[in-house]
Automatic annotation (TrEMBL):
Transferase keyword on record: yes
Protein's recorded name: Nicotinate phosphoribosyltransferase
Enzyme class: ligase
EC number in record: 6.3.4.21
Purpose: Catalyzes the first step in the biosynthesis of NAD from nicotinic acid, the ATP-dependent synthesis of beta-nicotinate D-ribonucleotide from nicotinate and 5-phospho-D-ribose 1-phosphate.
Originating species: Sorangium cellulosum
Residue stretches making up the Nicotinate phosphoribosyltransferase N-terminal domain: 4-132
InterPro entries given in the database record: Aldolase_TIM, N/Namide_PRibTrfase, NAPRTase_N, Nic_PRibTrfase-Fam, Nic_PRibTrfase_pncB, Nicotinate_pribotase-like_C
One Gene Ontology MF term: nicotinate phosphoribosyltransferase activity
Catalytic activity: 5-phospho-alpha-D-ribose 1-diphosphate + nicotinate + ATP + H2O = nicotinate beta-D-ribonucleotide + ADP + phosphate + diphosphate
């Protein structure tokens, strides 16, 4: 599983240890962050589950071993004996880590591995990749959730990152308090509530906004959250209330002055007898914009946050490192 999801030098080092008779030496390595990124005062540790699954399933296939033999930098070391070692490779070490969701600070170990030297070396790249990414996203998502207060935050960022990264991002965001994700695969894989509304294309594909709303409510009578800003947001709010009535679960605002519009839309919905309908806001949101809206008293019940959250846009990389801290003889 994922055996080649690593840097070449992990494999050249493993080959070197093998041929120099160092396989019995036991090493302890720690993964930590030397300094916080700008705009961060804390981090939230995530990614351990991915690392554990990687360690449990780490294997080299015959096809992968043959490929390694064709890499010039490895060719001299890919002897039959080393190939046999890789073929039987299993991780035998011990792993200690802080629980996922733990708030951590610089120079505090997130992960500690004690294992035979080759094993401790080989897992470095994957461990850093999984934990750096998930921790960066979780730390950003935690800031967004804190800013939202008692309003919910939905993770909406799948389209703004790589498909596999989107799954890790959805899991990290949910772990720190997001109420759900738009990513259906993440919902099935991790048991995360899957949430969503409607597309502008749906409205534009109908001859009128009224027809679009009527069609949506007909198909989804118990889950009608209508997107009302395709044309005129306030007119859309009135139409949504008139058409869906007591079946209206909510409306979504995706553009414009979200603060002013949410106030006006709330009044339209309340006056129409749709006081229970929620207002969902989305569109380039982050913790700072959400804090501004809340300070202004915007009556927004749910925030959909995508790009800034899944890319951790103001701190897009985390400088986690994995270092040898102890080595035994042998």
């Amino acid at each position: 599983m994922d055996a080649l999801h690593t840097d070449l030098y992990q494999l050249t080092m493993a080959a070197g240890y093998f041929h120099r008779g160092m396989t019995s030496r036991v090493a302890t390595c720690e993964l930590f962050v030397r300094r916080l990124p700008r705009h961060r005062r804390f981090l939230v540790a995530m990614g351990l589950d991915r690392v554990v699954r990687y360690l449990e399933g780490l294997r080299f296939t015959d096809e992968q071993i043959a490929y390694l033999g064709a890499i010039p930098a490895l060719a001299d070391a890919m002897t039959p004996a080393f190939a046999d070692y890789l073929r039987g490779f299993r991780f035998h070490g011990d792993v200690w880590a802080v629980p996922e969701g733990t708030v951590v600070f610089p120079n505090e170990p997130l992960l500690r591995v004690t294992a035979p030297l080759i094993e401790a070396q080989l897992i470095e790249t994957f461990a850093l990749s999984a934990i750096n990414h998930a921790t960066a996203v979780a730390s950003k998502a935690a800031r967004v959730v804190l800013a939202a207060g008692d309003a919910g935050v939905m993770e909406f960022g799948t389209r703004r990152t790589h498909p596999e990264a989107a799954l890790d991002a959805a899991r990290a965001a949910y772990a720190v308090g997001c109420v759900g994700t738009s990513n259906v695969e993440a919902g099935m894989r991790f048991g995360i509530p899957v949430l969503g509304t409607a597309a502008h294309m749906w409205t534009m594909a109908h001859p009128t906004e009224e027809a679009a709303f009527e069609g949506y409510v007909a198909v989804f009578p118990s889950a009608a959250t209508l997107l009302i800003d395709t044309y005129d947001t306030l007119v859309g709010a009135a139409r949504a209330a008139a058409i869906a009535r007591d079946r209206l679960k909510g409306v979504r605002l995706d553009s414009g002055d979200l603060g002013a519009l949410s106030v006006a839309v709330r009044k339209i919905l309340d006056d129409a007898g749709c006081a229970s309908a929620k207002i969902v806001a989305s569109g380039d949101l982050n913790e700072h914009r959400i804090a501004e809206l809340r300070r202004a008293g915007a009556p927004i019940d749910l925030y959909g946050v995508g790009t800034d959250l899944v890319t951790s846009i103001d701190a897009p990389s985390l400088g986690g490192v994995y270092k040898l801290v102890e080595i035994g003889g042998g």
